[in-house]
Write a structure and sequence with these properties.
alpha/beta; UDP-n-acetylglucosamine1-carboxyvinyl-transferase, Chain; Rossmann fold; 4 domains; five-stranded parallel beta sheet; four-stranded mixed beta sheet; 23 helices; 21% strand; binds adenosine-5'-triphosphate; binds ligand L45E5XJ5; amino-acid biosynthesis; Multifunctional fusion protein; EC 2.7.4.25
Length: 676
Amino acid sequence: MYSTAFLDIPALASAGGSVQLPGSKSISNRVLLLAALSSGTTAVHDLLDSDDTRVMLDALRALGCQVALAEGTTRITGLGDARPAAALSLFMGNAGTAMRPLTAALALLGGDYTLDGVARMRERPIGDLVDALRQLGCHIDYLGTEGFPPLRIAQGAGVPALALDRPVRVRGDVSSQFLTALLMALPLAAKSQDVVIEVVGELISKPYIAITLALLARFGIAVTNENWQRFRIPAGSRYQSPGSIHVEADASSASYFIALGAIAASARGQKGIEIHGVGLNSIQGDIRFIEAAQAMGAQVSGGPNWLRVERSTWPLKAIDLDCNHIPDAAMTLAVMALYADGTTVLRNIASWRVKETDRIAAMATELRKLGATTEEGPDFLRITPPATAQAWRAASIHTYDDHRVAMCFSLAAFNPAGLPVRIEDPRCVAKTFPDYFETLFAVVQPASTGVPVICIDGPTASGKGTVAAKVAQALGYHLLDSGSIYRATGLAARQAGLAIGAEHAEAIADLARTMALRFDAGRVLLAGVDVSDAIRTEQAGMDASLVSALPQVRTAVVALQLGFRTLPGLVADGRDMGTVIFPAAPLKVYLTASAACRAERRRQQLLARGINAKIADLRADLEARDARDMNRSVAPLKSAQDALLLDNSELTIEQAVAQVLAWWQQRQPFARSAAG
Ligand SMILES: Nc1ncnc2c1ncn2[C@@H]1O[C@H](COP(=O)(O)OP(=O)(O)OP(=O)(O)O)[C@@H](O)[C@H]1O
Ligand SMILES: Nc1ccn([C@@H]2O[C@H](COP(=O)(O)O)[C@@H](O)[C@H]2O)c(=O)n1
């Protein structure tokens, strides 16, 4: 997951391969609550692991449910007749699928609870649900603004006598989650008589209600659906754990990859994108996004648990669509509209205004930043794509703490202008799809501009490694510590009993080419053994300097280094990154510091490892190493002609990092366009 301030996605050209989607958020949180309300233990397979499901799990644990995770299966032991003795404060984050159903369930369980969430949750309406529960006789108070969280459910003395002799009425035209919440909770009250729920107004998002009904049936509650207007829960209803249940992958998450297949040219040798975990028979309403994508020109095939999507009509066809049946996935259509042959209109999407953010306003604003023309109404959005490739702009997409905004705008990186897209706060995808960007990067290829590389070269102990690691971390880029490749080669040569010199150049080059070197979470593994410390000694540095002077060895490790250049970008540190390995890199830094300063830094570094070395010796060693690195015949250490010099003798690490990042920002197009 990317936890950086922003994530720059370079211009993309094609896609191909297969993706496995995470479990559905809607199904996961419904299953968790139903398992909690049942007696016995339910084994939940493929549960989504995300912010919103964690919120639900935390709440269930606080209520007294046992939750155990082992080998990808979550086991929930239901509450049975147990109730928490003391008052509980529950934090719901921004998870509507936890806040609404838990409010109803807790009101019907009895007890004292406070339910709150993040600032946006306090703006998301819940009044219609609370009204319905109050009608029944439940005691619920608002602790802030009327109609919005935080709430207090105050039924320490137990659930009051409920008015079940008449239908419970709830509005269906603001959020279908209110009805879902009642449907999941009211079986608790349907003991000696049927409970009837009556929908007031047109019921929106019926497919989500269909999911609720299907899952209730799996947990033993057979609700009668009377034309989506009345729902009857039969007397004597009891939640019964199915024992084991599988969570289908998220159909809304599939929308980004369906759109990807529709937008991106197939990568060489590939036939579009294959999506696993959800298929044509999905119980989720958002699967009907496929029909919308097909209407725009996508070619979609599939089976029970998989889909394949290929680009067909190009440009895509503009559509005018009532999106009430696919409220979440329809946001993806708004970005597909950027690639259409005219104006697309998405209608009947008023519910977007009360989601994680006001999604109509958010989408309109961010699409405009890219160069599109948009018009928004109370329940529609009209999108006209940029008229020409030149009319596209590199935008920094504000994501409003809304996972779907972040995910769907990643697809703007296929713009014909070859511009990158900046996604602000990429971590927000953790709500439903923590590894979204990693999954995307595994199946897309960059445009001709390539994957960006920042090179940081310089002499020994100038701070290259430290600065490079921090720059990479700030940008979410990969890191190539090229020195460690030479260090590992030196170690491998010693282990093989080879003296390091020209006479063994071929043998050492063979070792370098074939050694099983792996970089894993900051550790260096040689033939499966962690050699991170062994290659950091002063002797290993000298050996590295010797092997790196052998031309055969340098050639042997070129491909390995080039292989690090993967999406979304690379920071490479070494001696010849900017001069030889990545000569076209868009930013090259030559990082240096005075010899005295570098020797002192090295002394401090060794002291931290409990090694006391003389500063004069250290300085002599590093000057000898620099001299060899600078004077060897191949790829000598020198500043690339187009490198920027950074002498950090007088800088802190943070200042050096800030300078490199500032130079990188100057090379980005976002700053200019973000204001526009
Ligand atoms: N302003 C600074 N910038 C970078 N590093 C600094 C700075 N001040 C102190 N240091 C310290 O200098 C030491 C050497 O840094 P580092 O190991 O990153 O250098 P290097 O150039 O990668 O060395 P080598 O060439 O041996 O791999 C580290 O302990 C680092 O914390
Ligand atoms: N691109 C590179 C990187 C390193 N070397 C040689 O390896 C030695 C060790 O490098 P460190 O950065 O880990 O200290 C270094 O002294 C160089 O001789 C290289 O040649 N090219």
